[in-house]
Design brief:
Elements lengths: L1 H12 L8 H20 L5 E10 L4 E11 L9 H11 L2 H21 L5 E5 L2 H5 L3 H10 L8 E6 H5 L2 H14 L2 E7 L6 H4 L6 E4 L11 H16 L3 E5 L4 H9 L4 E3 L9 H10 L5
Parallel strand pairs: 2-3, 3-4, 4-5, 5-6, 6-7, 7-8
Antiparallel strand pairs: 1-2, 1-8
Bound molecules: ligand C2E and magnesium ion (MG) (3 copies).
Length: 287
């Protein structure tokens, strides 16, 4: 019930020290959790997916996208995804949310396949998802209802997600890999883990965190970090993606560093599936 969800969340936050303003924030968060729960049960959902293209720098083509969830609440405002994903994780709603995302994305990829566009789409996972008993089963059952191959689905996990319950997560990833799914390490470079640790996991892709990319064109240190991460990633056989590419100069530097993919506002913001295909077919994205 919704009460159970509220109470579970309450237990986790009530141990924090009292601070002025906390009450309001706390109540707002409880309210959001209730609203999110209702949104996930609503067949006419106020949740929807946006897609952000990833540019294959060598070919100049877009052949991959990242699926990003969006939510417009009862007041008509966008709720920050980082905020509600975090609340979903804390309240236990994340499993339901991720199932919702998986179904939406696979449906969309199937639709694009029918149009003759075989894109690869990445889905963001939380640590709880990959550790969940029924996760792989749900993923496979959903795929079997559509004409989508596992190789079209990339699973993005952060370094932190990979470090949680390492043994189990490694087993799951090896199994997913054997089924054909790809694995991507999101927000790479801001966590504590090292590439050395990742070499024991079946990782296909490294996404350099946007904090290193946003001002790449203006910061020599970022350039050094990014260039060496790309080169080390390649030595380990990984595909490297830069997220947060906001200008042409940064894209040119990434090309010079032989980065494989670029994702960011310079190319396109995350947009609806309809807007994306319009943009894609119009060739506006070709330089
Ligand atoms: P993320 O997975 O690292 O996603 C990339 C974020 O960077 C997205 O924020 C995207 O809109 C933003 N971004 C892309 N290009 C640029 C750029 O050029 N400049 C700047 N400043 N930002 C850029 P968004 O959509 O707000 O999502 C934030 C985070 O929320 C995601 O980070 C991910 O951790 C989480 N998230 C989003 N959708 C989902 C989902 O469906 N499931 C789960 N579990 N988490 C999600
Ligand atoms: Mg991501
Ligand atoms: Mg992330
Ligand atoms: Mg990221």
């Amino acid at each position: 019930s919704s009460m159970a969800v509220s109470n579970a969340y309450k237990d986790q936050v009530s141990v924090r020290l009292y601070q002025q303003g906390d009450d309001e924030i706390y109540l707002y968060k409880l309210h959001l959790i209730e609203e999110l729960k209702a949104a996930l049960e609503n067949p006419n959902s106020p949740l929807f997916m946006n897609y952000q293209p990833k540019l294959n720098i060598k070919t100049g083509k877009v052949d991959k996208l990242e699926a990003l969830i969006r939510w417009i609440n009862n007041k008509g405002d966008f709720v920050n995804p980082e905020l509600f994903i975090n609340l979903a994780e804390k309240s236990g709603l994340i499993t339901t949310l991720t199932r919702w995302v998986i179904l939406e994305v696979i449906k969309q990829v199937d639709h694009w396949n029918q149009l003759g566009h075989k894109f690869k789409v990445s889905i963001n996972l939380s640590a709880q998802d990959i550790q969940h008993e029924q996760f792989i089963e749900y993923l496979l059952t959903t795929l079997s209802n559509f004409n989508v191959e596992p190789v079209q689905i990339t699973l993005e996990l952060t370094e932190r997600d990979l470090a949680d319950n390492e043994q189990l997560v490694a087993e799951r990833l090896f199994y997913l890999k054997s089924l054909g799914f790809e694995v991507s390490v999101d927000d790479y470079g801001i966590g504590q883990s090292s590439l050395a640790k990742l070499k024991n996991l079946p990782v296909d892709e490294l996404k350099i965190d946007k904090t290193f990319i946003l001002k790449l064109d203006q910061c020599q240190q970022d350039q050094d970090i990014v260039a060496s991460t790309i080169s080390l990633g390649h030595k380990l056989g990984l595909r490297v993606v830069a997220e947060g590419v906001e200008n042409k100069a940064s894209l040119e530097l990434l090309e010079q560093f032989q980065c494989d993919y670029a994702q960011g506002y310079y190319l396109s913001r995350p947009i609806s599936a309809e807007k994306f295909i319009e943009w894609y077919e119009s060739d506006e994205h070709v330089n």
